[in-house]
Structure formats: C-alpha cells, structure tokens
Design a protein that fits this description.
The protein is mainly α. It is 64% helix and 11% strand. The chain has a two-stranded antiparallel ribbon. A hairpin with a 2-residue loop joins strand 1 and strand 2. Helix 1 packs across helix 7.
Length: 228
C-alpha cells in the first residue's frame, strides 16, 4: 500500500469516526495462515452441537417412558437420530480431513488420570467406526436369521425371517457422562481456537492489517450505497 492509498484510508476512517457510525466492518479471509483458526472454530462448533444433542436426548428419554403408541414411536426415532448424530459429530472432531485440516488428538485431550474419559471416548469412537460408519463386526448390533416352517396337512412351506438387535441409544447415565466429557474437552478446544486467533493476528504486518481494513470499509460502503 503506497502513501496515497494510506492517506485515502485515513480519510475514510476519519470520515467514519466523524459520522458517528458504529458499524462493524468485516471481510472474509482467504489466507493459509487462517486455516488453523478456522479448524478449531469448526471443532468448537461441533462440540457445542453435540452438547445440545445430548441435552435433547435426556429430555426425550422421559417422554419415551411416559408415552405410548404413535407418539412414542416418533420419540424413539428421534432419539435414535440424535444418538447417531451425536456420535458422528463427536467423532468428526477426532478425524483428519482435508477440509478442516486439523483434528483433536485423544492423547492431548486426556491426561494420565482421566481414565474414565479415555474409556468413554474409546467406546464412542468404536461405536462410530465399527457400527455407524462401516457396519463392521460390532457388539452394538446383532442380526439373527431364522428358518420358519409352516406345516399344513401334507404341505410344508419354508420362509426366512430376521431380527436385528442394535444399540440405538445411550442410557441416561451414559448420556450424563458423555455431557461431562464434552464439558471437559470444550474449554481445551476454545483455548486452542483463541491461541490460533492470536497467532494469526500477530502474524499480520501493519500493511496487511491496513489492507484488510480498507477492503472491509469498501465492502461496507458499497453495500450501503448500492454499489457493486
């Protein structure tokens, strides 16, 4: 940014101050350095979402017990959907992807003495990896096939039937422990997000900051005046 551009930027800033406008000025960042911040922000969002899923599940459990008939079936399906969503969303935070670029590491999240959280984390990841994501060999689901015979006088007919017994939810006790796990991990993730924010801001030169400010003000001005 040359001296003329800096002077022009200062004029715009002074004009905004004098007009007493209290607008927020923002600009989307397209910078490799911001990827770490975006990754931890995304993980933070997911963990908060899991916390909401769990809270809804706990509320639903009481309704499933109290209600019967069609309403109960709807609640059961909703409970299963929230159960699946909570496990998959939680596991996303510990899974490497090209888009997010980072993931949480269990060894960093759980200290030597957090044995109960470690075991719960392992159980949740096993449900995701062996049952929800890949339909592998899992204790979470058993499928039984049976041969059924119908004998009527001299006629014998045979047909097959099946029964699926699966884990479609967590107990209230497990849900409370899951919620405590989220409460334990979330502050660590927020801290990493804030560290990434500071690292990015510290990496910007004064010229880069002024350039971003200029673009943000121009974007706001164009939006307010109808210019494209």
């Amino acid at each position: 940014m040359d001296s003329d551009e800096i002077d022009k930027l200062n004029e715009i800033i002074e004009s905004v101050r004098q007009s007493n406008n209290e607008f927020d000025y923002s600009i989307d960042l397209d910078d490799k350095r911001i990827k770490r911040y975006k990754g931890y922000a995304s993980i933070t969002f997911d963990l908060k979402l899991v916390g909401e899923f769990i809270s809804l599940l706990l509320d639903l459990k009481a309704k499933v017990i109290e209600e019967s008939g069609q309403n109960n079936r709807v609640n059961q399906l909703t409970e299963r959907s929230l159960f699946i969503s909570s496990i998959i969303t939680y596991a996303r935070c510990f899974t490497q992807t090209d888009g997010r670029g980072i993931k949480l590491e269990s060894r960093d999240c759980f200290g030597e003495h957090q044995t109960s959280f470690k075991q719960l984390h392992k159980n949740l990841m096993d449900i995701r990896n062996e049952y929800l994501a890949h339909a592998g060999v899992s204790n979470s689901e058993k499928i039984y096939a049976s041969a059924n015979f119908n004998i009527h006088e001299s006629d014998v007919s045979m047909k097959l039937s099946y029964e699926i017994i699966g884990q479609y939810g967590l107990s209230s006790k497990d849900l409370f422990e899951f919620l405590e796990l989220i409460k334990y991990i979330l502050p660590k993730t927020i801290s990493k997000r804030d560290e990434a924010s500071k690292a990015y801001l510290d990496s910007l030169t004064l010229e880069e900051k002024n350039g971003l400010l200029k673009k943000a003000i121009e974007k706001k001005t164009h939006a307010n005046t109808g210019f494209v």
